[in-house]
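Bit of a strange request maybe. I'm writing a small parser for structure token strings and I need a real example to test against, not something I typed by hand. Could someone generate the tokens for this chain?
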Amino acid sequence: MAESKFSDEEMKIIKECLESYSNFTMTLFGLDGEFQSMESPIERKFYIALRIVSRNERAFTWMPRMEIHANSEVPATDYRADFWICSPDEIDMPNPPVSFYVEVDGREYHHMTKEQVNKDYQRERKILIATAEPILRFTGSEVYNDPIKCARETIDMYKRLYVEWLNGHGVRR
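Reply from user aminoacidic:
Good idea to test on real output. This should exercise your parser:
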């Protein structure tokens, strides 16, 4: 995993932005209507961190373009995922070569009771059966305590899946 190219001062600003969700933050990082549709502060914090880290990665390391879709409908199910991460539509293929889901689970909505745990596991299985796409999960406390780390792990997953796809199609990076 690549080290951050952000200075300490930049990291301080980023953390302040993550805390405030100000209009400036929304303008600076191109946050749009999807941002407004997110159901929880933890999802918004993760989204901002993911946008910031992906810009950093694209600027300083090799990283293919990726799309981040919030509150995304999962095909062939009646579920919505917190995030769908995929390669851009500009790749001329019927399905994106890289596609996976990210769930950010705050304790008040997930894993407080045995029924909530069961419901989450059933939901995850139905998504995997319907799409065969992996699901990356973070707890709310992971995102709250270190959103940059969670974003980096998501980017690492995207890059790994992208390289696997390239290798499977005879393209070496």
